[in-house]
Amino acid sequence: MANIISYIALFSLIGLFFFAMKRIMQRDNFINDLILGYYDRQTISKDELIDKIYDYACRDFRLKKIVKEQQATKEDFANIFEKLIYWGNFKKRKRYIPINSFFFYGSLSYLLKNKDTDAKALTKKMMNYFHI
Question: What is the C-alpha separation between 61 and 93, in angstroms, rounded?
Fold first, then answer.
């Protein structure tokens, strides 16, 4: 009986691991596509970018809790994006602060709680968050 329970626990953990890794890989590919489209190829406009970021945040099971809790709107996302792009408009490897900051629980939570903060302080916090 103990063996059956341990096998069930093992397979549950394996399933959870694969689910989490699939979600992370999809998120990272989506972020990379946005960075390539907006920063490198310039095929995505700023308004399209904000729409895609906001839609993703409203769909993602972790991020939508923050969006609802903070009652965030597309305008909030656009204002925060403007602040981040003013001081953090550079790319380091696959990180681009104005885009990456919206896709992680801790960074999005901080951004929405401190959306009225100075642009430089907000960007510095995000640069520290992403180790840039």
Answer: 27
Residue 47 CB neighbour total at 10 angstroms: 10
pLDDT tens by residue, 52-97: 999 998 888 888 888 888 888 888 888 888 888 887 777 778 788 8
Tell me the residue type at 109. S
Identify the CA nearest to 82 among candidates 102, 58, 64, 68.
102
How distant is the alpha carbon of residue 18 from its chain centre?
20
Q: Whole-model pTM? A: 0.80
Could you list the beta-strand ranges (E) of the chain. Answer: 91-92, 95-96
Q: What angle do CA 70, 107, 126 make, to 5 degrees?
A: 130
Amino acid making up residue 35: I
First to last CA, the chain: 51
